[in-house]
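// run 5 | inverse folding | seed 20
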């Protein structure tokens, strides 16, 4: 049962109802893409399963949706006493429990990255002659 923070009764702990959202992915900061080629590389990341990208406060992140192998079926940490420092540093101040977290931008498909790329770097066309026939080809910046 998912409770809202404001619904907690005295003595109840938000962690008792936690669905462990933060233990079902990890996000790595990446350099902000500023060329068509860099965005094409991001599209390649997105062609892999269980990957998305988000932008938060202008910073880009690669998000890999994968459950921590030490998370138990009850969503509690199976190695709590020896958990990594990053887990120790995570506080309920940044908790994603209620789903209130939002991003400046979220990309969940390679097509979304392609559309974003095209919006930033529209492909111009170049004429190419092939066996007497002229065809229009996109020019990648």
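// decoded
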């Amino acid at each position: 049962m998912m409770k809202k923070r404001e619904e907690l009764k005295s003595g109840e702990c938000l962690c008792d109802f936690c669905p462990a959202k933060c233990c079902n992915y990890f996000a790595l900061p990446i350099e902000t893409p500023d060329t068509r080629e860099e965005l094409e590389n991001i599209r390649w990341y997105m062609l892999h399963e269980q990957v998305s990208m988000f932008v938060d406060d202008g910073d880009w992140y690669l998000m890999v949706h994968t459950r921590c192998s030490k998370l138990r079926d009850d969503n509690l940490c199976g190695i709590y006493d020896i958990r990594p420092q990053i887990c120790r540093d995570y506080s309920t101040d940044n908790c994603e429990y209620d789903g209130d977290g939002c991003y400046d931008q979220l990309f969940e498909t390679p097509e979304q990255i392609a559309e974003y790329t095209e919006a930033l770097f529209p492909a111009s066309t170049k004429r190419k002659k092939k066996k007497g026939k002229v065809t229009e080809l996109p020019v990648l910046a």
